[in-house]
From TrEMBL:
GO molecular function per UniProt: DNA binding
Domain of life (superkingdom): Eukaryota
Domain HTH CENPB-type: 67-138
Keyword check for Chaperone: no
Keywords: DNA-binding
Protein name: HTH CENPB-type domain-containing protein
Organism (species): Fusarium oxysporum f. sp. radicis-cucumerinum
Keyword Flavoprotein in record: no
Length: 140
């Protein structure tokens, strides 16, 4: 019977490193597998292998996180929904969608946080529209 479970290659590489280190400690023969060698052998990134290896040494389990890596969003989900509702309200009331008004609304929401956050960046509006295709202007 074949195993349907395909482990994450970075986790498999981290496990191989731990086994290699344990074997080296017990027998003192050869050298243990390095992160770079394991990453190459299992076709995984060195940073992912290192992250899982560190977590397995500290906590005994791989580092699986629901949190996305990278830079945090300018607005959280509730704030983004509020800005979208504001844009829809503006359009229904017959006002044009104005970049300055929308950026001002986003900055007001960010300023109301504790502690207050700074203003959104120069390209925020363009990224916001790209991430929310329901707000694209319709060509009739």
């Amino acid at each position: 019977m074949t195993d349907l479970y395909q482990p994450n290659p970075a986790v498999a590489a981290a496990r191989a490193i731990l086994l290699s280190q344990r074997r080296h400690r017990n027998t003192k023969e050869g050298k243990p597998l390095t992160v770079r060698e394991a990453a190459d052998r299992f076709s995984a990134s060195k940073s992912a292998v290192g992250r899982h290896l560190k977590s397995m040494k500290l906590y005994g389990k791989p580092d699986f996180s629901d949190n996305s890596r990278g830079r945090p969003r300018n607005l959280d989900e509730a704030e983004e929904r509020a800005v979208i509702a504001y844009i829809v309200w503006l359009e229904r009331a017959g006002f044009p969608r104005n970049q300055l008004l929308i950026e001002e609304a986003a900055n007001d929401l960010r300023a109301s946080r504790t502690p207050p956050a700074g203003p959104v960046g120069d390209r925020w509006y363009r990224r916001f529209l790209r991430d929310n295709p329901q707000l694209q202007k319709k060509n009739c």
